[in-house]
Amino acid sequence: MTHDTNDMTQPDWSDARFETRAIHAGQEPDPATGAVITPVYLTSTYCQEAIGVFKGYEYSRTDNPTRTALQEALASLEGGAWALSYASGLAATQNLAYLLRPGDHVLLSNDTYGGTYRLFAKVLGNYGIEMTMTDLADLDAVRAAMQRNTKMVWVETPTNPYLRIVDIAGIAEIVSGTGAWLVVDNTFASPYLQTPLDHGADFVLHSMTKYLGGHSDVVAGAVIGNDPEAFETLKFHQNAAGAVPGPFDAWLILRGIKTLGVRMREHSANARRVAAFLQDHPSVAKVYYPGLPEHPGHEVAARQMRDFSGMVSFTVNGSYEDAAGIVESTRVFSLAESLGGVESLVEHPGRMTHASVAGTDAEVEDTLIRLSVGIEHIDDIIADLEQAMGQGVRVPTVSATTAR
Ligand SMILES: *Cc1c(COP(=O)(O)O)cnc(C)c1O
């Protein structure tokens, strides 16, 4: 290895609070110039003083200083020994899959993110990786689904789009001693609200495209962990296969991370108000939000999360047309896939993010609407939902499928 991503020349911020680490960990003023903000090191290669003698950096597929700063910040925020960053969340997932061999089995949640499901089922399945899916919120079902060749258990919590909660410590207890890795996709919570390594996970995965970046302007992924051998394997395969983020992408995520704490507090507070509003609305059939005491995962969520994040799903009374009428009438909420940005987004999972699981066990209701509640003023957010939902049944002029 040419460069230690846990660079010991950086001061130790481990005793500082989250908000302080988000701004300072890995982000010392630039030693060359004193620049307060980590520069975007737009360079593919680095000058060598003599053959093989260099200052830690050789080539930017292997390492880049902006990426190093990001990775040190990520490791600090998730409480891990190391972090690696990638060109997307799915590139991070693919890199973790290099820990598997043909004949190994992966256990996934039955409502895993569609792209993760697609990678394991439609790509890695062709390379001898077996997978099954079960309800990971049911620990008895997890015990029953573990196989002799299970080498990875893949948890998402909260899940998408029903915001189910999985007990990370409960799963860790089942997995420990079996030789399987426990991966937690922490995209929906962010490290401000949930740190899975503290509950026994081996790896945390992020789509940094969502809350970590936080401004809907960059696609990137990360893996954080403690195991030093796994780090060597993942780093080797990342360098060999090449799915790294560019320096500017790494910089955008670093910039986003600095405000993660304040953003997550606002997202959570606004989502709580939206959930309460929806619960009282006559057009709403059911609200899915782990902050509600009647949510089946509420107790576990309250134990392993610091707050309940900004995602709220709900079903409306009526038909697909009623749901489509609402998602096409909002103004503060933009009709778009993705989540976790400062702006509010609304989508119809059945015809948008989850269209590919139609006809499978993971199929979602046609009256389901998913909100990524942003950090606009709460009164404007509620007023927007009020006006959109007041419209009742409406025949859309353009169908939701063609409007994508
Ligand atoms: C978006 C997402 C991913 C995939 O990340 P990309 O950055 O889009 O590749 C993985 N997991 C979850 C929960 C996501 O929301």
Portion in beta strands: 5-15%
CATH topology of the largest domain: Aspartate Aminotransferase, domain 2
Biggest pleated-sheet summary: 7 strands, mixed
Radius of gyration: 22 Å
Q: Based on the coordinates given, report the CATH architecture of the largest domain.
A: 3-Layer(aba) Sandwich
Enumerate the strands of the largest sheet in spatial order, edge to edge or round the barrel. 1-7-6-5-4-2-3
What kind of assembly state do the chains in view correspond to? single chain
Number of helices: 13
CATH class of the largest domain: Alpha Beta
**What would you give as the CATH superfamily of the largest domain?**
Type I PLP-dependent aspartate aminotransferase-like (Major domain)
Order of helices and strands: HHEHEHEHEHEHEEHHHEHEHEEEH
Overall morphology: globular
**Helix share, percent:** 25-40%
Quick recap:
The chain is 33% helix and 14% strand.
Describe the structure.
This protein is α/β, with parallel strands linked by helices and 404 residues long. The protein has 2 domains: 7-257, Aspartate Aminotransferase, domain 2, CATH 3.40.640.10; 262-389, Aspartate Aminotransferase, domain 1, CATH 3.90.1150. Helices cover 33% and strands 14% of the residues. It is built from 13 helices and 12 strands. The strands form 2 sheets. Strands 1-7-6-5-4-2-3 form a 7-stranded mixed beta sheet, with helices on both faces. A 5-stranded mixed beta sheet has the order 8-9-12-11-10. Helix 1 packs antiparallel against helix 2 (65-78) and helix 2 packs parallel to helix 9. The radius of gyration is 22 Å and the shape is globular. Residues 1-8 and 392-404 have low confidence and may be disordered. Pyridoxal-5'-phosphate binds next to helix 3 and helix 4.
